[in-house]
Amino acid sequence: MNRGGGEPVLVTGPGGFLGSALVSALVARGRRVRGFSRSKPPGLSRLPVRFVPGDLADPEAVDRACRGVQVVFHTAAKPPPWGRRRDYVRTNVRGTRNVIDACLRHGVQRLVYTSSPSVVFNGRDLEGVDESAPYPARYNAHYPATKAEAERAVIAAGQGGDLRTIVLRPHQIWGPGDPHFLPRLLRRAHRLRRIGDGKNLVDTTFIDDAAEAHLLADRALAENAALSGRVFFISQGEPLPAWEMIDRLLHAAGRPAVRGSISLVAARRIGWVCEWLWRGLRLPGEPPLTRFVAEALGTAHWFDLSAARRDLGYRPRVSVARGLERLARFLQAGEGNLR
């Protein structure tokens, strides 16, 4: 898939978990890469990448970053699970609209947007659903609500004819270098309890496959304009019981398995109380549990990958078992931040 260095590309969030993996994959394929974020990621200095500083909420900064590029991979976002709504709107909604506007203004050819399956999560099981799954009537967290609003804007832009767009929904990205999910899991390992009966199946996405899916989306979009405005679920295609996967991640980090359990109903109630206390009393940090996290851990969510396989040529290359082996070696080498 080496398209050579002819097409300059922009990656927003080049220091993030997915963004950094995507930058490395693009450089390895000989692409001319530009990175855009508030501060320069340390790892970017080791790569032939041009860095443009700026904030997604600043339209002039986004405009500078998009000037002269042909492809934009928009991976930057304010992540879950907790924060003020205005901060999520500022980055996820306004920032994405700024990217779309700059792409249209400068004649960018393609925009690949990183969304999330949580945009269709309604608090109940999602088992083998495809891209026809509707947005829920309401959300209980700012992250999926703002990602859904941004996603709709990208879809609409792709249907306008001047900019080709694809939306990807990779589910729970993990692997060596993960700065979000695994560190949070390890910090809470001593007080974790299984939520529900533990039988809920969940599919995940290894970091290498998540990055590869973005490259495949770009190529498919360049070759087939009919894909513009489309959405695709991305995962490993290996649904496992959620708490089995969590135990295997803990084992890779040398930690014991989770002991004890509570019902999903009880976890939802605890999450609601925690949210009320943290918002009402303006407590620092994030609550120990939210309704969004409780439901994510206590329900099934795995997806039909038929569209991604057919239209993007997506084939997961790293099995869960192989990914866990790589993660364990990474952590044993002392490269992971386990704080």
Written account of the structure:
There is one protein chain. This protein is of the alpha/beta class and 339 residues long. The protein has a domain at 8-179 and 203-239 and 302-318: Rossmann fold (3-Layer(aba) Sandwich). It has 11 helices and 15 strands. A 7-stranded parallel sheet has the order 3-2-1-4-5-7-12, sandwiched between helices. It has a two-stranded parallel ribbon with strand order 6-15. Helix 7 (242-252) runs parallel beside helix 11 (320-332). The longest helix has 21 residues, at 85-105. The protein is globular, with a radius of gyration of 19 Å. The two termini are 38 Å apart.
What's the arrangement of secondary structure elements?
Blueprint: E1 8-12, H1 17-28, E2 32-37, E3 49-53, H2 59-66, E4 71-74, H3 85-105, E5 110-114, E6 126-129, H4 142-158, E7 164-170, E8 173-174, H5 181-187, E9 194-195, E10 201-202, E11 205-206, H6 207-223, E12 230-234, E13 240-241, H7 242-252, E14 261-262, H8 264-280, H9 291-298, E15 301-303, H10 306-312, H11 320-332
Helix pairs in contact: 1-6, 2-3, 3-4, 7-11, 8-9
Sheet with most strands: strand arrangement: 3-2-1-4-5-7-12
User: What is the average per-residue confidence, as pLDDT, rounded to a whole number?
Assistant: 93
Task: Give the total of beta strands.
Answer: 15
Shape: globular
Into which percent range does the helicity of residues fall?
40-55%
CATH fold category name of the domain at 8-179 and 203-239 and 302-318: Rossmann fold
User: What's the CATH architecture of the domain at 8-179 and 203-239 and 302-318?
Assistant: 3-Layer(aba) Sandwich
Order of helices and strands: EHEEHEHEEHEEHEEEHEEHEHHEHH
CATH homologous superfamily caption of the domain at 8-179 and 203-239 and 302-318: NAD(P)-binding Rossmann-like Domain
- Structural class assignment: alpha/beta
Rg over CA atoms, rounded to whole Å, is 19 Å
Strand content: 15-25%
How far apart are the termini? 38 Å
* Biggest beta-sheet profile: 7 strands, parallel
- SS field, number of helical segments: 11
Uncertain segments are none
CATH class of the domain at 8-179 and 203-239 and 302-318: Alpha Beta
